[in-house]
Amino acid sequence: MAREKVTITLSRDKAEMARSLTDARSTSEVIDLALDRLIRTERLRRDLAAYRQAPPSAAEMALADISDSELNDDTDWEALYPMAPRE
């Protein structure tokens, strides 16, 4: 995703505390991290709201009841889907 320089007004104390809590190298990194977390949280909140409006079907509930042993195989999912490095 393209980046561009912007001007914002924020509390320096909050930015510094967030920077120290996250070990971020810069205020820009703190803001980027905060926006990533906000986007993820908001998407989850909206997904949960949508889920509450349409509860799972009987077939979906049956799938959820399948035990781990029935789904167990030798697939190395971590090798197939490695974690993407953070930019």
TrEMBL record:
<protein>
    <submittedName>
        <fullName>Uncharacterized protein</fullName>
    </submittedName>
</protein>
